[in-house]
């Protein structure tokens, strides 16, 4: 799990906007796309991807595959949809070994798109497929112009997750409470509950885990200091220790309702993690095809909505490829989330992180 946490925090540090801004992205979706790319590449290109991911595609797939299956239970069933699609121009030869390797990934498919014949039609086709997987939460992953006349393939991951809390927050108890945002204090709708949660306090952070259906959980990460100061110091070892220290105890929790989104082009953040060959004519895609390819863009979009009933989130990542033209119950712990905080949603057993959000202003 530490490898996945390390990748998550390393890319988050390079991807997230300045500390005063709310943001959300999906480590699950991005690492899925990068894992598919690592499987499709060789030589130094693959080595750079594995270095950024901190693990081989096979071990990453084990984590992501376990997280792609939420367990059923009583009450409202969790909804989790994962799609990993290789879109190709019909004339692009695909190695049979890669088709077979792709089948190991959750929700895998190989589909044709008229990239060179009708780039706009290809863009709409991919967007429609992503919108279907994400229940229309991400209706247009690829903006106008994202499909170039030289585009011949795209690796696309799409993720949708909707889970209810094991025990819902009472809507009647949601009230306006002050939140100390960077731009000034403001009143925001704040949910509250006094019951047993997972709780930890260590290394300048408090963590509260909120169990959800199917084996998912949300974890509020509230720093003792300013988030802008504490967030850069949160490394994989510290976060892993904090998550490992969670113990069940009575907590009086005050948590704002929020809806957060984020979008980004990942070429530069991935480059800062050492992924460079992928975007150059030196890219080695021989496990995928005998044609010379390079990645022209990596696009990502994510949205997460948290309320009294549970959470709903969606994310998508697209790698666009072109031909290379070249006992006594203690007193409850009071956790009032009234200032900027981090919020992650993960699969509890595998440790895969579906979403990581920074909330600086829930209004």
TrEMBL record:
Superkingdom as given in the UniProt entry: Bacteria
Pfam families: Serpin (PF00079)
Record InterPro entries: Serpin_CS, Serpin_dom, Serpin_fam, Serpin_sf, Serpin_sf_1, Serpin_sf_2
One GO cellular component, as annotated: extracellular space
Domain (Serpin) ranges: 9-362
GO MF annotation list: serine-type endopeptidase inhibitor activity
PANTHER family reported in the protein's UniProt record: GH10112P-RELATED, SERINE PROTEASE INHIBITOR, SERPIN
Family named by the database record: Belongs to the serpin family.
Name of the protein described by the UniProt record: Serpin B
Organism (species): Saccharopolyspora dendranthemae
């Amino acid at each position: 799990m530490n490898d996945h946490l390390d990748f998550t925090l390393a890319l988050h540090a390079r991807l997230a906007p300045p500390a005063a801004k709310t943001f959300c992205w999906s480590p699950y979706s991005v690492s899925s796309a990068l894992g598919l790319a690592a499987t499709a590449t060789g030589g130094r290109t693959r080595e750079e991807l594995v270095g950024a991911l901190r693990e081989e595609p096979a071990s990453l797939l084990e984590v992501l595959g376990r997280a792609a299956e939420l367990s059923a239970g009583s009450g409202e069933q969790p909804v989790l949809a994962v799609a990993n699609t290789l879109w190709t121009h019909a004339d692009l030869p695909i190695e049979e070994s890669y088709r077979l390797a792709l089948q190991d990934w959750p929700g895998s498919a190989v589909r044709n798109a008229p990239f060179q014949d009708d780039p706009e039609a290809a863009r709409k086709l991919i967007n429609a497929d992503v919108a279907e997987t994400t229940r229309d939460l991400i209706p247009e992953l690829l903006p106008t112009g994202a499909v170039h006349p030289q585009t011949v393939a795209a690796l696309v991951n799409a993720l949708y997750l909707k889970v209810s809390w094991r025990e819902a927050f009472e809507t009647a108890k949601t009230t306006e409470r002050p939140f100390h945002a960077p731009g000034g204090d403001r009143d925001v709708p704040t949910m509250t509950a006094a019951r047993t949660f997972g709780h930890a306090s260590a290394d300048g952070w408090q963590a509260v885990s909120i169990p959800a259906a199917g084996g998912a959980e949300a974890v509020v990460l509230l720093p003792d200091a300013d988030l802008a100061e504490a967030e850069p110091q949160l490394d994989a070892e510290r976060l892993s220790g904090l998550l490992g220290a969670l113990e069940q105890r009575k907590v009086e929790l005050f948590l704002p309702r929020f809806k957060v989104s984020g979008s980004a082009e990942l070429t530069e953040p991935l480059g800062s993690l050492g992924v460079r060959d992928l975007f150059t004519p030196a890219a080695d895609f021989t496990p995928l095809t005998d044609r010379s390819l390079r990645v022209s863009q990596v696009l990502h979009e994510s949205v997460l909505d948290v309320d009294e009933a549970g959470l709903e989130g969606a994310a998508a990542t697209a790698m666009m490829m072109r031909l290379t033209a070249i006992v006594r119950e203690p007193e409850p712990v009071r956790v009032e989330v009234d200032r900027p905080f981090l919020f992650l949603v993960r699969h509890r057993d595998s440790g895969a992180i579906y979403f990581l959000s920074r909330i600086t202003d829930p209004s």
